[in-house]
């Protein structure tokens, strides 16, 4: 496979903003080692900025829960077969599915049958639920790359090749960056120098904003006399428009909310605390040493299915990594704005702040793997891609 001049062709498919960020670091580090590498597949603006060529808008794979994929099943099936054919035709040396596990593992299985080596970058939460999936994963992928060290054990136990590559953000964000850069971030964003600022991150998907956005803004209304300013970084233009419409339903917050385009890291750096949806944003808030309250809401049907299958005790990544409750979690019907507002007030009161920051620092150190974001992942992918078929 590969190209006539001997350079590599690597296919990647990322399905949302967090996958795009992982793919960007991976693309950058692959090109440092193999400048002539050709890429095919699906990526977002961060990957494109690093030299990736995408065949589709990344939003096409942005789905939530069980119901959303079912409603979009015909278009997703067409995309699945289209990508399979394009990747096979490209002569790809390797396929890397970045997150979007359900879709990418199906695609990996199709490609592996056609002789293409396959990698899944970001493990499904098999350690939390549906652990029987490991056998299917073993059939579909040649290598699993995990972001967290505790994830490798279940694959090792089942004989699946696995490597912990660290989380790029654990290296990208240096210890102390958050507190040291808070004043500069406020100046950059044009935010007040004094007074408590609460960052609100309701999610990068439209479905997440639809389900949790009102919970978060109702919480903000209850805190409007305690917080100087609420800042909401919209993940993209679509989320910006969606959040603008939603904010029009909350006239009591007029003048108290700043809506930005992107800049989630800068917003969290500038903030004193974070109200955040579940997911990678909880990790980034931890790395920036920001105390947080996490809330997550799914559609009723999706939650009724998921709640019967999940075995983990926690949903926020800092809690999972610490194996204890460091971050208050409010899931589904527990996402009561009054309770969440009270939890934010306690954070802004700096209760037990020093101990929390020390625990965040210990987790940060464990997540680092090498000195450069994406380097360990790139080395693993290139090693596999260069192996004879």
Give the gist of this structure.
The protein is of the alpha/beta class and 389 residues long. It is built from 19 helices and twelve strands. It folds into two domains: 9-166 and 369-386, Rossmann fold, CATH 3.40.50; 172-367, Glycogen Phosphorylase B (Rossmann fold, 3-Layer(aba) Sandwich).
Key terms:
6-stranded parallel sheet, 19 helices, Rossmann fold, single chain, 2 domains, alpha/beta, 389 residues
Can you characterise this structure?
Helix 1 crosses helix 19 (375-386) and helix 10 crosses helix 13 (264-270). The strands form two sheets. This protein has a six-stranded parallel β-sheet with strand order 2-1-3-4-5-6, with helices on both faces. A six-stranded parallel β-sheet has the order 9-8-7-10-11-12, with helices on both faces. With 389 residues, the chain is an alpha/beta fold. The model has no long low-confidence stretch (mean pLDDT 89). The protein has helices at residues 17-33, 45-49, 67-71, 73-90, 101-113, 133-140, 152-157, 168-172, 177-180, 182-189, 206-222, 237-247, 264-270, 280-287, 300-306, 317-322, 337-348, 353-367, 375-386, and strands spanning 9-14, 38-42, 94-98, 117-121, 143-146, 162-164, 197-201, 229-234, 257-261, 273-277, 292-296, 329-331. 47% of the residues are buried. Helix 7 (152-157) links the parallel strand 5 (143-146) and strand 6. It is globular. It is 47% helix and 15% strand. It is built from 19 helices and twelve strands. The protein has two domains: 9-166 and 369-386, Glycogen Phosphorylase B (Rossmann fold, 3-Layer(aba) Sandwich), CATH 3.40.50.2000; 172-367, Glycogen Phosphorylase B (Rossmann fold, 3-Layer(aba) Sandwich), CATH 3.40.50.2000.
């Amino acid at each position: 496979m590969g190209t006539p001049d001997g350079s590599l062709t690597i296919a990647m498919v990322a399905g949302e903003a967090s996958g795009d960020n992982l793919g960007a670091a991976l693309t950058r580090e692959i090109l440092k080692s193999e400048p002539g590498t050709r890429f095919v597949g699906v990526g977002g603006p961060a990957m494109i900025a690093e030299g990736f060529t995408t065949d589709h808008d990344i939003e096409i794979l942005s789905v939530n829960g069980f119901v959303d994929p079912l409603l979009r099943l015909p278009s997703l099936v067409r995309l699945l077969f289209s990508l399979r054919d394009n990747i096979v035709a490209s002569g790809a040396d390797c396929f890397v599915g970045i997150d979007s596990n359900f879709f990418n593992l199906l695609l990996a299985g199709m490609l592996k049958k056609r002789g293409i080596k396959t990698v899944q970058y970001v493990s499904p939460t098999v350690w939390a639920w549906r652990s029987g999936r490991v056998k299917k994963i073993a059939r579909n992928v040649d290598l699993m790359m995990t972001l967290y060290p505790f994830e490798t054990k279940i694959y090792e136990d089942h004989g699946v090749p696995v490597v912990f590559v660290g989380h790029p953000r654990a290296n990208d964000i240096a210890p102390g960056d958050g507190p040291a850069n808070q004043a500069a971030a406020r100046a950059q964003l044009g935010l007040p120098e004094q007074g408590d600022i609460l960052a609100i991150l309701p999610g990068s998907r439209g479905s997440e904003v639809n389900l949790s956005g009102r919970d978060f803004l109702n919480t903000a209304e209850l805190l409007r006399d305690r917080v100087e300013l609420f800042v909401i970084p919209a993940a993209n233009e679509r989320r910006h428009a969606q959040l603008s419409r939603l904010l029009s339903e909350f006239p009591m917050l007029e003048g108290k909310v700043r809506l930005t385009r992107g800049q989630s890291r800068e917003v969290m750096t500038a903030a004193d605390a974070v109200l955040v949806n579940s997911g990678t944003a909880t990790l980034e808030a931890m790395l920036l040493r920001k105390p947080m309250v996490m809330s997550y809401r799914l559609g009723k049907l999706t939650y009724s299915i998921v709640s019967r299958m999940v075995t983990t005790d926690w949903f926020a990544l800092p809690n999972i990594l610490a194996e204890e409750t460091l971050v208050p979690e409010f899931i589904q019907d527990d996402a009561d704005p009054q309770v969440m507002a009270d939890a934010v007030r306690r954070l802004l009161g700096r209760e037990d702040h020093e101990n929390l920051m020390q625990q965040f620092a210990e987790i940060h150190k464990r997540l680092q793997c090498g000195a450069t974001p994406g380097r360990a992942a790139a080395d693993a992918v290139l090693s596999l891609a260069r192996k004879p078929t």
